[in-house]
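Translate sequence into structure tokens.
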Amino acid sequence: MGKLEKYLAKSNETGQRRTETVLIHDEEWEVRELTFLQNRQCYRLAEEADGRFDFFRYNDARIVKATEHAFPWHHSELLKAYKAKDKFEMPARLFNDDPQGYNLLLEAVNRVNSEVQTEDQVVEELKN
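Result follows.
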């Protein structure tokens, strides 16, 4: 099988991602491992126009991406109710009165992504 065929076949595969369930005030939140592309998107979302990096926005984006399969962060009524301009502002607003809940989600995101490969590692793996 040539390279082209190999990667065409791989594009149709669905990879298994690690998940973890976190209990926050008797509600289950399922946190899913981020893909390489999702990690990149979170990083880009956190870059400011002047080149600074916003770690808070980065963490918010990671929480959204890791849980959006199970929670509608982008729901228009939810955005209006919390006066958020986009879904990436929602974690901080939703957990404004519950920083412990926010921290539990962030810790879960960090745990399920603890073995995420760096870009260099992925490139090296693809070479092999």
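Note: The first helix runs from residue 3 to 11.
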